[in-house]
């Protein structure tokens, strides 16, 4: 199909975004000739990456309108110059929800600052979309706030700039995310880059040895976003030492802060911004998840909560919110004695007034008998974790400064009288606005008073009258794991796995027992490299498996695989296998990798008589130690990758792939 450029929507770093005249539901991205360094942007690697993405779309996300996924090439004079993508219903980026505004000091802009409930709802929707993306096996890589679009009227979250995703194709070829915004680089990637530099190798993200970005690094970014949304836009790594004062109170920033572990609620640290709510303002469940993400997950990324875990915790948080009587934009955990967001606002206002002195902490929070025996967060390993700074402030872009005392501030007498006057005026104004809203503006209540029945509000009505405070996620809700026996998760090698998983990578986990995997009957792809596996019997019932990688284990018997008739690619390199006869009945097997096993040439010859279409790669044990040489399947390079699989044919210039028929890749 031919497309015509419409109006220019955006001039970005790599290209231009245009409307599509033939279809208002689509947009067109046209790449620039070269980047800022003069390097060409459209390369064979980029085209191969886009081609794979077009043939492996996240259908549910595209149908829900929450992802700008490439769906078709744009060509001019036979060359690829860009791609077509869905047009999303967004009006800003997530950054707006991070720009703290004070109701008095920033009154002109306060109305545009989302309420607490709205921000939690945005976090829920972000978790819902990322969960589906990860379920498909996709990795975002640079999951920063500018790559997340938001419709602030509906709460819809969308992913943009998808051509920068960190993509691994079916053959193990990785198309990298080369850059990431400061403040979102996971600690394990920082350590990896530093190790490469120390050993004299390239350590930039486009050169450093793989792996780099993973689902776990995405989950680090997700935790950063949730923290900012819940804590008035404060970055979780804008912490300073508890006793820092004056010039020593300046926090580290960006990736440097992550590397130095400046997490605000780590023992001995406190936030540099006084408008950050205390750790005790969070439900214990949420606080515990932040611990897993930023403390336990620092040394073991597998400990980080996944998007589904965050989703359910945030849904429960929404149900436990209480409306603040003082500020309509504040909702808080109902077991607290007062609104922590108002307390944070007061600290910030006091800091702007200059003189203040510390006073004892407020009374302990009400105990929730249903959570942790009534214990509230902040009583464990984070002694002092709720401490705040004294003179911090933030402006627009999130710059924070700090220094000073502990939480619980009060003004000197003169300043306190001023605060009482301001608070009284605010109460009168709030009461007047409430009366006006109820009787003059709100059509639902006005209709009831007048006796005229009014139909239930539509989602757009709710968005209009609540400032976009919509808590329902755009995607269908993620099933609660505890609801039914069929949805109870499985744990293996420290990883949490859901029963409906279709793809799993459980490599390098030291796994010995595969029994938990016997229930995962939907699996089509399973990677178990570099473990301590000897018994394959639990895999015997996984009849949908198409790809199985068992390299570098302790396997000697392949008999349990004899019934896996859907298996197409099997890699068993570096094991103790000497008998291939259990594989003779796998009619769909097209690729077999056996290097590093005590297998004789006669075994391979016999297998090929049963499976003439199967390509075998490896070295047989015979007198000459000859390399097995069989005819490779078309368009395959005969060289093993790290996981023993073969790469598809890579075009050396875009004209080769431009010959592909792109009509089938429309979504």
Which key phrases capture this entry?
667 residues; alpha+beta; Phosphorylase Kinase, domain 1; Transferase(Phosphotransferase), domain 1; 4 domains; 6-stranded parallel β-sheet; 5-stranded antiparallel β-sheet; 15 helices; globular
Structure description:
With 667 residues, the chain is α+β, with helices and mostly antiparallel strands. It folds into four domains: 5-86, Phosphorylase Kinase, domain 1, CATH 3.30.200; 92-414, Transferase(Phosphotransferase), domain 1, CATH 1.10.510; 415-465; 487-631, Ribonuclease Inhibitor (Leucine-rich repeat, LRR (right-handed beta-alpha superhelix), Alpha-Beta Horseshoe). The chain has 15 helices and 28 strands.
